[in-house]
Specification:
The chain is mostly helical. It is 76% helix and 0% strand. The protein contains 10 helices and no strands. The longest helix has 18 residues. The chain is globular. The model has no long low-confidence stretch (mean pLDDT 92).
């Protein structure tokens, strides 16, 4: 990714869309590796480039990616601000950005969940799920992510039967689409196994 970035800077230019694309990929790689400082530099550079072109979809994506980084860094107030800015831009043309809106609502929902705002988190996650279900296949891995998070939230709200049903759905999707040994499938299996049984569900 570093070599690709250098090549694109030389061939396409420092502010070219292709260069921004490389900044995203390298920034996300650094974020995944836990190298938050270099990830921040790369994603902030991408944001500065896109902001020169106005509040468009590319700027929204830069805000979203930087918001996700802030979330991983534990800076929830800043993450919320960035994610809400991205969401507001995408909402200006919702018919063209359904998937992005769902992603931003999921991200904001998980953030609210971490902040203990369960009612707001549930609304955002359920809206994200509705959008994904209406615009994609019912067994897509992205749907499993939202369903899994909803299961945890419903469990925390004391709705054990609903939590178990959602956890089972997430596991079915992940096992079918990702395979039984994928880390996400394993995580769903372990979570479901750890849920207490619903009273009266067994003899």
């Amino acid at each position: 990714f570093e070599q690709a970035l250098q090549i694109r800077e030389q061939v396409a230019g420092l502010d070219a869309p292709a260069t921004v694309d490389s900044l995203y990929w390298l920034g996300r790689l650094r974020q995944h590796e836990g190298e938050f400082a270099p990830a921040e530099q790369l994603l902030e550079r991408a944001l500065r480039i896109n902001q020169r072109r106005g509040d468009n979809a590319d700027t929204a994506y830069s805000l979203y990616r930087l918001g996700r980084l802030r979330h991983d860094q534990g800076d929830l107030p800043q993450a919320r601000q960035l994610l809400e800015q991205a969401h507001d831009i995408w909402q200006r043309d919702p018919s063209q950005h359904q998937f992005q809106i769902a992603c931003s609502q999921w991200s904001l929902g998980t953030l609210r969940y971490q902040q203990g705002q369960l009612a707001e988190a549930r609304l955002l996650l359920e809206e994200a799920l509705d959008i994904l279900e209406a615009n994609g296949t019912p067994d897509h891995p992205n749907i499993a992510i939202v369903v899994h998070d909803l299961a945890k939230l419903r469990h925390d709200q004391g709705e054990l039967a609903e939590a178990r049903a959602l956890a089972q759905r997430a596991l079915r999707i992940r096992a079918a689409t990702l395979g039984p040994d994928h880390p996400d499938t394993v995580a769903s299996r372990h979570y479901l196994a750890g849920l207490p049984q619903v009273p009266g569900a067994e003899c």
